[in-house]
Amino acid sequence: MAIATTSTTTLLLTGRPSALYSSKFGRPAATVQRTRGFTLVEMMITVATLAIVASIALPSYVEYVTRSKIVEATSGLNDMRVRLEQFFADNRQYPSACIASAAGPAPAGKIYLPASVKHFTFTCTLSATAYTVTATGSASSNMTGFVYTIDQASSRKTTSLPSGWAGAGPSSTCWITRKSGDC
Question: Helix (H, G, I), strand (E, B), or coil: what is residue 57?
Fold first, then answer.
């Protein structure tokens, strides 16, 4: 007995009639070839699973990116505090103005604002014995609503946060870095 197999049919060659026929003889072949691929149900289950995972992961990722941008504000404010205190130690008063960063030393009686900032705008209010430096989130970086301050007493405050974030206001005593209001 010999069995001849092609890609679409199987033919049993024995010299007598058989239950298996080739489609060459006009009769259906006994074997059915299975097509490869995914069924509609399998595809729908996969899409539903991906949608569930994305709905859980995407908000967490967006909050993580926002928190990473807040670091620019807090580090810039700390840098300004240190430089203002150094200026006060050298001159027995704070500078008369904060100016945009440039090359070289700052002009007499002035201090540079933090350089290379993308997500926040820094401003300062100065007098001979007091200062307040403010970092305000920029709209181009989706940081609208974030406002952080520091003053000569090293009081850190979060004066404003976007909706959904907790802990901002006059009673704030730290820089809020998480939606839950944690510092």
Answer: helix
Q: Which residues contact 114 (CB under 8 A, 6 or more apart)?
A: 76, 79, 80, 101, 122
Token reading at 79 = 């840098």
Residue 6, token pair as written in the block = 């092609």
CATH number of 40-160: 3.30.700
In this structure, what are the phi and psi dihedrals at residue 92, rounded to the nearest 5 degrees?
Answer: 60, 25
Residue 57 — φ and ψ, nearest 5°? -80, -35
Name the nearest CA neighbour of 84 among 124, 137, 135. Answer: 124
Rounded Cα gap, residues 129 and 111, in angstroms? 15
Specify the residue for token string 């130690």: 89
User: Can you give the pTM of this predicted structure?
Assistant: 0.73
Q: Determine which helix (DSSP H) or strand (DSSP E) holds 10, and give its type and residue range.
A: strand 10-13
pLDDT digits (tens, 9 = 90+) for 95-111: 999 999 888 889 999 99
94: tokens are 């704070």
Instruction: Name the burial class of residue 94, with classes exposed (0-12), middle (13-18) and buried (19+) by CB atoms within 10 angstroms of its CB.
Output: buried
Q: Which residue has the higher pLDDT, 32 or 168?
A: 168
What residue ranges do the domains of the chain occupy?
1-35, 40-160
Q: 117-150: per-residue pLDDT in tens?
A: 999 999 999 999 999 999 999 999 999 999 999 9
